[in-house]
Amino acid sequence: MKKLVVVIAFVMAASPALAISRYNSLSISCQAARASIHNEGAVILRYPSKRVSGMTLFDRYIRDSTYCDAHQYAEWTTIPTKDNPRCRVLNCQNIDNFDGMFLAPYNTL
After folding, report:
1. Most buried residue among 3, 38, 78, 103 by CB atoms closer than 10 A?
2. Is the pTM of this model over 0.85?
3. Distance (Å, whole) CA 109 – CA 34
4. Sheet containing 21-24, strands listed edge to edge, beginning at the edge strand earlier in sequence
5. Euclidean distance between CA atoms 13 and 7, whole angstroms
6. Distance between CA 75 and CA 88 in Å, rounded?
7. What 3-state DSSP class applies to 40?
8. Is 1 helix (H, G, I), strand (E, B) or coil?
9. DSSP state of 29
10. Containing H/E element for 38?
11. pLDDT digits 0-9 by tens, 11-40
């Protein structure tokens, strides 16, 4: 039994962490932000708030709806980047936001 616990602990310690990458959107181009999202599937992007001075906003941006929970879908939104103040990316939205639509759209980056 002790050997099994040691082996499991060793395997867990040796496996790579499944951490999500974080980027400051104003330090990269729109193309680089979209490429990071596409290559990694999901990333967290940070950027300063336009309404509240000194506040940093962040969210998880995704490649397509498969990176959302079952009750969510991928919807287009914009973020500021170094070269584009309205870079189009996808993030997860609740299905409750539909206006009477029956099927969720399948948007992909």
Report:
1. 38
2. no
3. 7
4. 21-24, 42-48, 56-62, 87-94, 72-79
5. 10
6. 10
7. helix
8. coil
9. -
10. helix 30-40
11. 555 445 568 999 999 999 999 999 999 999
C-alpha to C-alpha distance for 14 and 61, rounded to whole angstroms: 28
- Encode 41-109 in three state secondary structure: CEEEEEEECCCCCCCEEEEEEECEHHHCCCCEEEEEEEECCCCCCCEEEEEEEEHHHCCCCCCCCCCEC
Q: What percent of the chain has pLDDT over 90?
A: 63
Torsions phi, psi for 99 (to 5 deg): -105, 65
The predicted pLDDT at position 14 comes to 46
**Tokens 């999500």, residue?**
20
Average pLDDT over residues 53-63: 95
Q: How does 16-33 read in b/e, with b if 16+ C-beta sit within 10 Å?
A: eeeeeeebebeebebebb
Any idea which residue has 């980047």 for tokens?
Answer: 81
Neighbours of 44 (CB within 10 A): 13
